[in-house]
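Render this sequence as a predicted structure.
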Amino acid sequence: MNVPFADLHAQYLSIKDEIDAAIADVIAQSAFIRGPQVDAFENAFARKIGTAHCVSCGNGTDALYIAMIALGLQRGDEVIVPAMSWISTSETVTQAGGRPVFCEIDAETYTIDPGAIEALITERTVGIIPVHLYGQPADMDPIMEIAERLGLWVIEDCAQAHLARYRGQAVGTFGVAATFSFYPGKNLGAMGDAGSIVTNDAVLADRMAMFSRHGGLVKGDHQIEGINSRLDGLQAAILSVKLPYLAGWTSARQRLAMTYSDALVDLPFITVPKVAQDRDSVWHLYVVQTERRDALAEHLKERGIATSVNYPRALPFLPCYTGRAYPADAFPHARRLGDHGLALPLFAEMTEQQQRHVISALAEFV
């Protein structure tokens, strides 16, 4: 039996008629850039997250960049980011003129460690970007307490955490802004690149929208110099079709993750992911840790099971940051996750038979 890492085609087939009709409607209207489909999605997504405003853009990376530019990041400003994430979290700080300062992650949740943040704060620190990694919320209460006490802004990186909740509150509603990616493989994925920023600050929302549209909200009326990062009508229409299904897909992911954890927790060679108390993970990825990662991945591949090493190296140790010269023992939790993390197949359309095959192959590896 072959088990893919994800099955986007199966998801498409489950709602094919609706997707095809939405695409045909955009084509019939020639509403390819912005237009009514984009407006409708922005309004619907803001309501779903629980914020007043949603500013769509070209992708999740642009979303981070746009938010920091709109917040007035200056050259040399420092922004604290977790040592384990996709590079968008740190590279956009640099692109916006700032300097990313890496923070250790929690050993069990893989999200930024609030206890390590204050030691990194200097007179140049202006903000914190917690990442809700793999779909698990970061520990937002102590992060927000630090930020509010010291006058720092917080941008939540929610690229993997659509509908995740922290103590009953939706992620994306804690900081001054939050960014989302709708890359095809995300829990809510487009059929191309797409992203958005949500906020309750109307002035900030207008500034971000303006910057993402060449500096003006009306064509030809450029109030500032901006960039071109717009959500196209096709992607907006597709996302609007998928959005009502997101809660059900999320529940399916949560059931699959629970089945994995129950079945694998006693296997001696792997550590299963943990969800902290009062947090609801949406399980964008189910990442186990094992010192025998390469051998396990090969074993599963031989049995038709796809896996993924999403971030094989912690951010501070990537070639682009070698000038920082971190010691080998820095960021041990992030380094360990990079060295030992292996994501197993998990997608809403995964069948019981497929998951049993994965679990059996893991048990066989013993």
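Summary. The two ends are 20 Å apart (CA to CA). The CA atoms of residues 267 and 363 lie 7 Å apart.
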